[in-house]
Amino acid sequence: MPRMLAPFVLAFCLYAQSANRLAELTAKGIAYLEQGRFNDALNSLEEVWEQDQSDVAVAENLAMAYLYADHNLSKAKALAERAIAGGGKASFFVQHPHEKIGFVSGDMVEFCSGRLSVSRERLVFTSKDQRHSFAVEKGQIKEIKANHVYGSSRGMYHIRTADKKDYNFRPRSWSEEEQQLVLQLVNEHLR
Q1: What tens digit of pLDDT does each residue of 73-123 get?
Q2: d(CA 41, CA 91)
Q3: Could you tell me the CA-to-CA distances from 51 to 21, 75, 172, 184 in Å, in that order?
Q4: Phi/psi at 108 (nearest 5 deg)?
Q5: Distance (Å, whole) CA 116 – CA 146
Q6: Reduced to 3 DSSP states, what percent helix, strand and coil does the chain have, rounded to the nearest 5?
């Protein structure tokens, strides 16, 4: 009987080792993203994704790595959509201004950086300065549009809520393509 169990025990041990390795690579990839080491994040998270495409957090963070390391909008969009469809979220690094000093140019003197996340239930801004973090539930977004004056050349956009709050954001890449992806995902999933 013990001989018959040996292959099962060996298979279980190999599976556990593989799962631990994937968890370590995922944690490294996410840490690399937060540090701005986008190519390292891409390498770690791609290795995880090649072996297991079931984790929506890996899809979310790999989408960000594609967006910021390779500027590959099509791969980033596909993974962002997959993350949201699987009950996760799509996230973007953004800057949120606290004033309008550089009204036309979009140059910001006072701002906070953070992560803007879109899910099927809400939009969440998680700021490095927690005083500026907020969440807007589905159906409470009155408007999300590209800015026509304030920071328009830097990809800036604004969100207006049903309770009359306005929030401006500039994408990390300062690109209109990243701006349009955020607007599209919010309009598809939260309005």
Answers
A1: 999 999 999 999 999 999 999 999 886 555 444 455 678 999 999 999 999
A2: 15
A3: 11, 17, 29, 30
A4: -110, 130
A5: 16
A6: 50, 25, 25
pTM of the model: 0.85
pLDDT tens per residue across span 179-191: 999 999 999 999 8
What domains can be seen in the chain, in order of their start residue? 2-85 (1.25.40.10), 90-190 (2.30.29.30)
**pLDDT > 90? residue 138:** yes
As given in the structure block, the two tokens for residue 144 are 């999300």
Closest C-alpha to 46, from 33, 36, 35 = 33
| All residues at 6 or more sequence positions from 91 whose CB lies less than 8 Å from its CB, including other chains | 60, 61, 63, 64, 115, 116, 117, 118
DSSP secondary structure letters along 8-63? HHHHHHHHHHHHHHHHHHHHHHHHHHHHT-HHHHHHHHHHHHHH----HHHHHHHH
In angstroms, rounded to a whole number, what is the distance separating the alpha carbons of residues 109 and 97? 8
Q: Is residue 174 left, alpha or beta, with left meaning phi > 0 and alpha meaning psi from -120 to 50?
A: left
Q: What's the DSSP call for residue 174?
A: -
Cβ atoms of 80 and 72 closer than 8 Å: no
Q: State whether residue 68 is helix, strand or coil.
A: helix
- Between CA 72 and CA 65 the distance in angstroms is 9
